[in-house]
Amino acid sequence: MLLLLTVLAASSAQATTVIAPTFDQLVGDAELIFQGTVIEARSEWISQGAEREMVTYVTFDIKDAIKGAPGSNYTIRMLGGTIAGETREVADAPRFKAGDRDVVFVEHNGTQFIPLVGIMHGRFHVQTDASGRDVIAKDNGASVGDVTKLGHDERAAAAGPAISLSDFKSAIRQKLAGK
Fold first, then answer.
1. CATH number of the domain where residue 142 is located
2. Which tens digits make up the pLDDT trace of 121-175?
3. What global pTM score does this model have?
4. 79 Cβ contact partners less than 8 Å away, ≥ 6 residues apart
5. For 176, which DSSP code?
6. Residue 1 falls within a domain, yes or no?
7. Residues facing 38 on adjacent strands
8. Looking at the 3D structure of the chain, how many domains does it have?
9. Range of the domain at 52
């Protein structure tokens, strides 16, 4: 019994490992791709059969619908959150807060525990650099310089100057057009 408890404790302490999708996979697997600003992140308890789960609803004000038709506002449902000081987390899941500006790649919203392609890899921050230009960074804050290296060589993807928001969206649209 002690051995079983030790094995269970050790396995639950490990983080989730997610293989980074390539740029082609991000664009191809996403049902929706949009640029938006988080206007609300709200956690609540929901019933799933005999179980209760904590979920967070993240609502975006859509600035640019790149793939699909999300409407003017769109809400994703993610497993985990914080309610009355109690926190339930999914390892490596992105954490959204009001005011975040992002480009997100959404798949299976409402049925997948984190409805982003590749979990944290399906979220890209829009940041303003020192020159006032909007640029793209990954969920972990690393800049994205070369989208063709995403999922192949993450270090090379972050090398060089950060790609601008407009160039990032242009690369997505070119991929969608089959170019």
1. 2.40.50
2. 999 999 999 999 999 999 999 999 999 999 999 999 999 899 999 999 999 999 9
3. 0.88
4. 53, 54, 55, 88, 90, 93, 113, 114
5. H
6. no
7. 60
8. 1
9. 19-176
